[in-house]
What we know:
By secondary structure, this protein is an alpha/beta fold. It contains 14 helices and 16 strands.
Amino acid sequence: xxxxxxxxxxxxxxxxxxxxxxxxxxxxxxxxxxxxxxxxxxxxxxxxxxxxxxxxxxxxxxxxxxxxxxxxxxxxxxxxxxxxxxxxxxxxxxxxxxxxxxxxxxxxxxxxxxxxxxxxxxxxxxxxxxxxxxxxxxxxxxxxxxxxxxxxxxxxxxxxxxxxxxxxxxxxxxxxxxxxxxxxxxxxxxxxxxxxxxxxxxxxxxxxxxxxxxxxxxxxxxxxxxxxxxxxxxxxxxxxxxxxxxxxxxxxxxxxxxxxxxxxxxxxxxxxxxxxxxxxxxxxxxxxxxxxxxxxxxxxxxxxxxxxxxxxxxxxxxxxxxxxxxxxxxxxxxxxxxxxxxxxxxxxxxxxxxxxxxxxxxxxxxxxxxx
Length: 371
């Protein structure tokens, strides 16, 4: 089977959660005899095609952007040339330009969509976009959500229950490789052990302003690893609050990520808006056996982190609750160890690349058989 994935960004230009899911899916479904190609937009289109380990990546040049949505006339021409050559089209939502591609060309190729997230930020534009979105979703043979919580809480998905399937994200064993002893020693000398750790892109919906407020005066370090558009304002907040125990590491590589997860006492993920649809970083923490602290926002974060089992779930944007959760795990190492082991087992049961790939392969076959 030949599958064409369509999404607005991909490696090596960007390294977000959806890109990682596409990577794991393209690589994992090869065991089911599925050959994947990824069609995307890039600021650099030389070369226009890149043969990567997991798939052929075909890149169209971005023509312009509207509300963070790239449009590509070059990619439209590529899609017109390619879409009939594949057995199945696999869209990754949200990307309104992809809706236009599919509806404009009236592609006869069977199609499914992974519904990664509602559109949260652009409310006015979203109301204007809603009719196009509904036409697009009606054309899909299947719609896939990543968690039961998101499937139940999304007002958009509730209108498409007849074709809705739930397939959780998965990570491969690559992410569970043993930490490099040299990296462990480096971070141990710099940060010590027993710190609270956040890893991710510093975006507006990550709730890190709440984490900084909760960290003030805490008897343990709080480490924020990653970069992003909120980096400067968060550093200023920490400096103005006198939070000397908050450490910003900037962007880190995978080897440093594993070392930090090995050393940390717990993983803190305070995202407070539904833009955080799942939380790949939570999967990485669970895979490494770390207890987690996250917020109840009606999305997949609570599917990964189960309250009082794999960690602690708190109300969003509540510094006192976040501080109390961190203090509890800090002062009760036995509890942290039990919850960390439960997180590891929960990951193994639900969130491996093999499970995700097998479920998608079955969904592909269902879509091909369905009118």
